[in-house]
Each structure stands twice: as C-alpha cells, then as structure tokens.
Amino acid sequence: MKKHLVMSRAKRQFLIVLRRLLVAVMVAAFVTLYCNSSIEVEINGNQYRQTIDPFEKRNTFEASRLFQAILEEEVRGITRMAVIKSQLETNGAYNGQKIIDIVEYAHRQEELYEETVTARFYLDDLVKWGNYGFVTETVCGTEQELNCWFEFGLGALSAINQERELYGNIYENINISGEEQNVLLKEFAQYARREQEEEEQQSLSLRMINELPSTREEYQRRAEEVGLYVEDSEILELQVLVPRYLSVDNWDLAEYASNVQEYVQLREDLKTTSKELFYNATEYWENKNAHAPERTNIRYCYRMSVNGQTLYLSNLEEDFTGKTPEEITERFAGFGSYIAYNADRAEITTNTDINAEQMKQEIGNYQYAFGDNTHAWIGVDTSYPMQDGLRMAQEAYSRVMPFYKYVVAAFLLATVLSLFLLVRLTCYEGREEEEDKKGYRIVLRRADRMPTEPFFVCALLGNGAIWAGAGLGYVFCVSTWADARYSLWLPLAAGGLSLFWDYVFVFFYLSLVRRSKTHTLWSNSWIRRFGIRFGKTMLSLYDNSHILTRSLVPFIVIVLSNLILGGFDIPGILAAAVIDVAAILVLYREKKALWEIVERTKRIRHGDFELKIEEKGLHGENRELAEAVNGIGEGIKTAVEQSMKDERLKADLITNVSHDIKTPLTSIINFVNLLKREKIEDERILGYIQVLDAKSQRLKQLTDDLVEASKITSGNISLQMERLNFAELVNQTCGEFSDKFQEKCLEMVLNTPDGPVYIEADSRRIWRVVENLFSNTYKYALEGTRVYLDIREMEIAGKRYAVFSMKNISAQALNIDAAELTERFIRGDISRSTEGSGLGLSIAKNLTELQNGKFEIYLDGDLFKVLVTFPCMEKRPDGQAARDVLRGSP
Amino acid sequence: MRQFLVTARERQGEGKMTNILVCDDDKEIVEAIEIYLLQEGYHVIRAYDGEQAIHALKSNDIQLMIIDVMMPKLDGIHATLKIREYSSIPIIILSAKSEDADKILGLNIGADDYVTKPFNPLELVARVKSQLRRYTKLGNLNTENNAVFKAGGLVINDETKEVTVDDEPVKLTPIEYNILLLLVKNQGRVFSIDQIYESIWEEEAIGADNTVAVHIRHIREKIEINPKEPRYLKVVWGVGYKIEKQPG
After folding, report:
1. Can you give the pLDDT at residue B21?
2. Which of A269, A403, A405, B227 could form a disulfide with B220 if both were Cys (CB 3.0 to 4.6 A apart)?
C-alpha cells in the first residue's frame, strides 16, 4: 500500500471540522458531568452540598449514598431539635417561666455532687442575659477578706473602720501577728454584721462593690490606714456581677456562695447556661417549624423520659401515648424508608443503610437529655410530597443517573477521538508535496511569520479571553437562574462556545506545529534576535578593543563581582561561584580553540595543505590567527599546485618536442646509414659520415633521456613494486656490460654476499638505475683501471639496508661538486665532447628516490664512488621462512 | 645479423614478387625504407596517409604493411583497426611514440610489431623478413618430432642440435645451446643465474660470477633482432632469465 506523505487540503479541512465537533461534544459532556456531579441541598436551614458518585451501582435513589448522607444529616438535625425542645418546651410549647438549674444545666453531661450549691433561674431571664451579656465590677481584697464577705456579709476591713469611727483606735499600739490578726478580723466581722443586719437590707453584691476598693493600690492604702501590712500577691481581683441578675428566689448570686471559689463557679455556670440557652433558643425559633410535616418528607417520633414522665416528640399529628414500640415501628414502615432505634439496646430496625452504630452516635451526643427507655423512629415519605432537600436530591439524582454512563462514555470517546485526530493533524501539518512527488517539505503560512513572543501572547490572550468569558457567563447564569446549573442549556452553550474556542485554539496550535517543524520557533523569536544582537555587540566591542582592555576588563569585572558578591552570604557566594565557573569555561574554550589552531598549523606544516581551520565560532586573537594561518596554507597550496602544474606542462612540452625531433632524426639516421653503405673511397668523406652517424645517434639518446628525465621529475610515471634480488640484478648487469668493459680494459671486481639480497623495487626502473651507473662508468672511467662493485647488507638504526657501491677512477679530473653531478645536463667533462646526455646520473638518482632508495655520490680526487641504498626485505618469502623454522634448518 | 642479410639475398630470386605497403606522412622516411627494402628484393607501394594506405591495400596484392601512427586524415591506429576488419596481413607500426602505453595500444589493436623512431633501418628490414616468414611459412611446420622444441619462431631440434629463428639457422656454442634448451624446455619459467649455472655446469654456484649473464647476452645477440628489446630471451631484472611463452 502506498503511504501518503501529504494530506489533501479537503481532507485536512474535514478532519479539523470533525475534530471541532468532537471537542464540542467533549466540552458539553464535561459541563454536564461537572454541573450534575454535585447537588446543593438545604437541610435545617443550612446549604449542604453533596457529590454524586457516578460509579455507584445502586439504581434507586433510596439505596444511594446520597440519600443516606442526607438522611444522616436530617437525623442529626431532628435529634438536636428534639433535645432543644425538651429543654425549652413544656407540654409541647415554649415556656418562658421554666425554671433552669444553672449548675445542673452547665454540667448536664457530667456527674454532679449532691451537695453542690446551686441557683435556679427563669428560662426567659437566662435567654435575655445570654443575648445581652453580663456586666461585672472589679473588687479587690485578700482571700480571707473576700471569704469573710461571702460568709458573713461584711468585710473585716470595713468593720475595723467602723470600730475606729465608734471607739477610736484602740489597737493602735498593739503589735499583733498574722494569725492573731486573722482571728481578730473574724471577730470584728461577726460583730459588725450583726450591727449591719439591724441597720439596713442591701444586697451583698452591691455592698461589696460599694465598700471594697476596685484597685490593688487602693486596698493597700486602706490596709495601711488601719495598720495592716498586706503582700501585693495576697490581693485578689474578683469580678462581681452587678446585682441585677436575680434568681427565682429573688436572690443575688453572691448570696448563694459561701466563699470565693463557689462564687466564681456559680458565676461561670450562669454565664455558660445563659449563653447556651440563648443559642438553643435562637435555633429553636428559627427551625421550630423546619420539621413541620408540610415542610419535609421526613417523619419522626422520639420517645424520651423527662423528669420521670415519658414524652413523645413527633411531627406527626398523632398521639403515640400508650402505643407499643412495635406498633409505632409498623406505622413508620408505611412511609417507604424508615429507621426504628432502641437506644437502650442499641437495636435498629431499618430498610436503609444507616446502622446502629451511627444512630448510637447521633443519640449518644445527647444522652443527658434522653435518659432511659429512649426510642427514635424516623421515616421518609418516598413519594416526596413536600419540596425539601430530599426531594431536590431525588430529582437531581433521577435527572442524571440514568444517562450518566452514556455521558461519561461520550466524553471519553470524544476525548480520545479528538486527541487522535489532533495527533494525525499534527503529523501531516504543513507538509507540501515536492515537485518530483518523492518527498515533501514544510510550508509556513502568513500567520507563522509573526515573531514567537507576540504569537504566544496572542495565543494566550485569545484562548484566555474565551475561557474568562465562559467562566463569567457560567457565574452569571448560575446566579441569575436558580436551576441554570441543571438545565440542558448550559452544556449546549458550552459546546457551542467550544466550537468557537476550538477554531482559535487550532489556529494557534497548528501554527505552533508548523513553526516547530520548520524550527522557526526559536529562530523567529525576539529573545534570540535580541540575544544575537547583544552577543554581536559584545563580541565586536571585544574584537575592536585594545589588547590591554581585552585582558584587563574581564579580569577586573570578575574580581570585583567576586568581592562584591562575597559580601552577600551564601547566595552571593553561590552567584560568584557561578560567574567564576562561567569565566573558567570561557577561558577553557578560548584555550581549546587556540590549541586547535596550533594542532592544525602543525598538520599544515607537515604538508596537509588542504586543511582549513574553522574560523566560525572564533573571535579575537584566535580568529585573526586562524585567518592568517589559513591564508598561509592557501598560499602554500596554490604555490605547490602551480609548481606541480608547471612541472607537468614542462614534461608534456618536452615529450611533444622530442616527438617532433624524432621524425626528422629518423630520416637523418636512415640516410646516414645509406651513405655508409655506398662504396666511398674518400677517407675525408668517410670521416664526415662517421661524425654524422655518431651525432645523430647521440641526438637520439638525448631525446629519449630528456623525455624520461622530465617524466621522472614531474612524477608522471607509475611504479610496479616487486620483490627482487639486488645481487642478481648487479650480476645480470655485469654480464650485459662485460664486453663493453673489456673493450675499455676495465676490470670488474664484484663482491656479493652468498645469499640473495632482497629489496622492493620496480624491476625495469632499478635496472635503468644500475644500467645508467654502468654506462656512466663505461663512459667516464679511466681505461685499464679496476671497477669495484660491492653489495652488502647494513644495519642502520635498527633497519636493514641493501647497499650497492660502485667505485672507479675517473678519466677526467673531477673539478665539480658531487651534488652537481646529479643535476641535469652535468657531466664529468665540462667540454661535453663525449657521448652521453648528462642526464644519466640525474635519472638514476631520481628513479632511486622514487623507489624509496637513497643515491649518493662521493668524489675523492679521481675516485668516483656511488652508493645506492634500499631498505632490505625479508630474506625469503614468509611462507618459506616459516617452513624452515618448522624443519629446524640451520 | 649479417647472416640474415646474406640469406635474404640468396632468396631474392625465389617465387613471385613480395609487395610491401609503406605508409608515412614523411616522404623521406618512406623513400629511405623503400631503398632498404628494394635492396632486399621487395616491391614497395607508397602511401602518405591512412586513407591512401587503405585504398592501396584494396587495389594491390600486398603481403605486409609498415604504417606510421601520427598521420593526417586517418591515423595509423584507426587505419590498422579498419584493415583488421578484413585482412590479416602482418602490420608493423612505425612511430615516434615510444611510451609503453603507445606500444601496448598498437599491439592490442592488431599490429604484429611495433618499431619506434628513430629506428635502425637494418632492424626494420629484419623484422619485416621475420613477419613475412611467419606469415607465409610457419603455419605448416612439422612438429611431430619429440626432440623438437619451439617458442614462436624459435625452433630447437635436439636430435640434430640445430637452432633456427624464423627458419634461419643460428650457430651457438654447446654451453649457449644447453642454456637455450633449458629455457625453451621450460617456457615461461624464470631461472636465476645460480639455477642455470647449477643445471648446465652441474656444480655448485659460488656467487659473484657473471659467466651465465655473459652467455645469455651472447645468445640474445644471436637469436634476437634487437638484443636490447628481446622477443624470446627476456631478462627479468633482479630475478633471472626466461623464454617468453609464445602464442601459436
């Protein structure tokens, strides 16, 4: 199957639209789920939010957790209300004259001592005071002083003052101890009280407030007046209720107490009781009718014992008195859902999920109120005739629950599909087929040219505006229409809006995809442009600055930054370390670049003229250095190439010229030959012909040598290197030249080692070398002398070399330098009268060097000595050597 | 070499006239060659470029052709190629190009021999004769005798101890004869100096002796037209000597 690399325009548009519809479905489903996932229920006047568990298996509302949670809440409320009613009502109606024992009430959840002092108040009074709060006055005195007040109704200090007024200061000069003083004080107090009672009938609180000082300083002062010394720490500050809070007995609270502790206890109990009763009363008045049968679908009946009589609390207008618990349970079972709870036995009969433990907890909180023999019946009228929380919950539940699975499935399906389509679109986005139909390229659109940052801002603003609008719209709808949350319009509107949002989203998203595919996300960003410009500016500043500035300014900046940042504790030191590490990295980079330049320069020096130093990424001195080295390398390369080219041109020229010379030369040689065959008697003419013959032959030799020499120097020959025996070669050459040497009476003295001397060379070229040497000897050696030929193996610096040496006596005086002999056209005789081109030694030397050999000439007087050295090869081929080892040959 | 000349003169009157086509753009060269060939009793037909050569070949009964390479209109290489399409006469290329590559090219496209300018006219004549002999006679040589060894034009009859090159008898010394026999018997194999020495003299070689080399040179001088460019007895420098395996 052919794989399409490019998506057609129509298909792309279709997929985008399809995806948009899927997104709309997804959003609508999500909104539906979100709005219906929780319902707000009003129970006992409280807004109460419940989450619907979408994966619940139960299929009726009464079996759901939602129902159970609401029911629990209702039971809690009803129980509490029952308790409050038992506190505030008498015979089913609020009783303001109900007498409340404050100590009993405040400590209703504790065990009480029998003899505890208590006071009783009217309910109305308590609720009123709870509402307005209590007013107190501060009085000061020692514990004994205050206890005296509570016990005898009179303080000792006042008594002494009264005594003084009556009898004068009789104890003025008596020095008494603390214990004696106490006794005295009591006596005085008893005495004084008796007198007081006779005088007037004022409430104790009022008198305490009037007669006791309100500050410690005042008390100290008064005590000093009567000559008593009191430690500051012994003085107590007591808050005394103003005498307006009277009990059932019309008594002030102070009059119940016999000492300070008791008073404080009573006062706090009074405060607690009245505050709590106030709250309860408030709740009572608010919710008195919350559980009226016309306002709730809950039916209940509590049976409790109050003050020894059995009380029934119920919102059913029935009289349960005298009915057995079983009968009442029967009655409640008729409501659909019911709970019957026997508190004594912690026994529950129900068709709901509420268990005995939960009921025990709810009832147990108010154990004090229910007493023995408590029963509770709660029923729910499952036809929900009344508009209440349960009915709301039931409606919400039945509205959503049957479709919940489908909505979830639609949401998941739409999500997965739209994601898949998004991935597919992402893959193909921006592709455009190449002309050759073989590949594709990524094409940018006009919108993609916008720089990255404004693009992102636009994207965020565009999407954000839509999201914010949607959020505001949601809030507006929910606050304007009560049922908006649950209406079908909200998901529809959300879906519609998401069609529009997806258009904006896809526009930006696909642009983002195209940008990242063409890698223009970064290259087209303002940050990068700015960074590059900044970097360039810095680099050009650096490159153009003086060498002193270049090295000093960074150094000073780093040192200063270290010094300054070092003063900022750990963050500063860390920042300084970061700067230092960065500086070290930069230094390292610079050094590395320099090292690279040095390495490459070395390689250029060794003949790698093609090599270039990468100038990109370098700056400052490194860049200049790299440019200079590259320039030098380029120059050398050009020069070498030029010289090679010149040499080759020269070789070509010589070859061509020699061809052109050869043709006329052929004729000359031919006709000279013909002349020689004529029977010419004249000696003179024969002499001329002789000269012509010799010179034409030499010309022939000269042209051949010239071509060869030029080819060798221009490196225009190919070598076929092979292994050969140097000694054999010299032997063969000796054979070739034996007649010629004899002709000149030259005696060959040949010394070769016993075994073969193997070297690697091109056989024909090395023959040319040796031949040239021999013919050189033949031409220039003194007649009748000996020619010494030696072949030996030498070891130089761990390597074996084959050395061929040839020594002879020159016929002419050698008045030139040895090195010059191997130059072209140099011959032993300056007159150039003998045969030979003067190229022989030059060719020999060049050929030797081409074959990795060494060619040396030594002159010592008339002694002419040539050394030809080649690296030795193995004595024998590897295979044979190995065989010899195996055989153990000597 | 003198021997060849003598025998050629002897055979001058035999049979019908041999026609040789000489083709070179340099008229003097053609003229000189003609003089030499006429002396040997051959009839020469001249041509000065490749087209003329082809034309002359068609209109005359020609037994051998000498052709230059660098010529106007049609060069020697292309002319040879065309001629080889219908004729198998011996062709000797005569050229100023002396590179190995040129020689290889010339021989590969169908030439039988390659002579570089400037040439020795006597050598050219000898090569002409050699080619003619091979072309006209060698095909029906008696080879049934077991004692006869041959390599191309070189034939050794071990019974009569006679050596002939292109039917021309060659006189060799016994040692030279033995060396040549050894090499011809083992055509293509390279013998080093020591090996030859040991098998001919039947005693151990003790190095540093160029006797064998001298003998080889003498043999070459006797059997080769140009001893410096031997056809049969080749020097493998630094290794030894061999008789090249000859085709046909």
Report:
1. 92
2. B227
Q: A679 to chain B, minimum CA–CA distance in Å?
A: 15
Q: Give the position of tokens 């019908």.
A: B16
pTM of the entire predicted model = 0.46
Q: B213–A731: do the CB atoms touch at under 8 Å?
A: yes
User: Could you count the other beta carbons within 10 Å of the beta carbon of residue A859?
Assistant: 17
CB-nearest partner of A667 from B29, B192, B217: B29
- Report the alpha-carbon distance of residue A829 to residue A831 in Å, rounded: 5
Q: In whole angstroms, what is the distance from residue A270 CA to residue A129 CA?
A: 10
Mapping DSSP to helix (H, G, I), strand (E, B) and coil, where does residue B25 land? coil
User: What pLDDT does A113 receive?
Assistant: 65
- Residue among A731, A725, A704, A726 nearest A840 (CA): A704
Strands A758-762 and B43-47, sheet pairing: unpaired
Residue A869, φ and ψ in degrees, nearest 5: -120, 130
Residue entry with tokens 């719209």: A473
Is the model more confident about A423 or about A447? A423
User: Torsions phi, psi of A760, nearest 5?
Assistant: -110, 120
Neighbours of A510 (CB within 10 A): 20
Best B29, B191, B197, B210 residue to mutate vs chain A (most A CBs within 10 Å): B210
Which residues of chain B does A739 touch, with a Cβ-Cβ cutoff of 8 Å?
214, 217
Please give the full DSSP string across A128-166, using - where no structure is assigned.
Answer: HHHHH---EEEEEEEHHHHHHHHHHSS-HHHHHHHHHHH
Identify any residues that bridge with A380 across adjacent strands, giving them in sequence order: A298, A337
- Please say if the pLDDT value at position A200 is more than 70: no
Contact state of B29 with A704 under an 8 Å Cβ cutoff:
no
Q: How many residue pairs from chains A and B have C-beta atoms closer than 8 A?
A: 115
Q: For chain A, give the percent of residues with pLDDT over 90.
A: 6
Structure confidence at residue A539 (pLDDT): 79
Q: Which among A140-149, A171-180, A303-312, A474-483 has the top mean pLDDT? A: A474-483
Please, are residues A776 and A816 in contact by the beta-carbon 8 Å criterion?
no
Give the pLDDT confidence score for residue A179 in this predicted structure.
Answer: 59
Q: Indicate yes or no: CB of B29 within 8 angstroms of CB of A673.
A: no
Residue type at A591 in one-letter notation: K
Hey, are the CB atoms on A729 and B237 less than 8 Å from each other?
yes
ipTM over 0.90: no
Of B32, B216, B239, the CB nearest to A735: B216
**Closest CA of chain A from B239, distance in Å:** 6
Å between B96 CA and nearest CA of chain A: 6
CB B193, CB B213: distance < 8 Å: yes
**Three-class SS string for A833-862?**
CCCCCCCHHHHHHHHHHHCCCEEEEEEECC
- Count Cβ atoms within 10 A of the Cβ of residue A471 and give its class: 0-12 exposed, 13-18 middle, 19 or more buried: exposed
Is the pLDDT higher at B64 or at A542?
B64
Contact A667 B35 (CB under 8 A): no
Q: Are A662 and B96 in contact (CB under 8 A)?
A: yes
Provide the pLDDT for residue B8: 44
The minimum CA-CA distance between A597 and chain B, rounded to whole Å, is 46
Is A667 close to B28, i.e. CB distance below 8 A?
yes
Picking from B96, B121, B214, the nearest residue to A673 by CB comes out as B121
Put simply, whether A666 touches B (Cβ < 8 Å) is yes
Contacts of A734 in chain B (CB under 8 A): 210, 213
CA of B218 vs chain A CAs: smallest distance (Å): 9
Per CB-CB distance under 8 Å, the chain B contacts of A754 are: 207
The whole-chain average pLDDT of chain A stands at: 80
For A644, what's the count of Cα atoms within 13 Å in the CB-facing half-sphere?
8
Distance CA A291, CA A44 (A): 8
Q: A171-178: long-range contacts at Cβ-Cβ below 8 A with a sequence spacing of 24 or more?
A: A171/A227, A172/A227
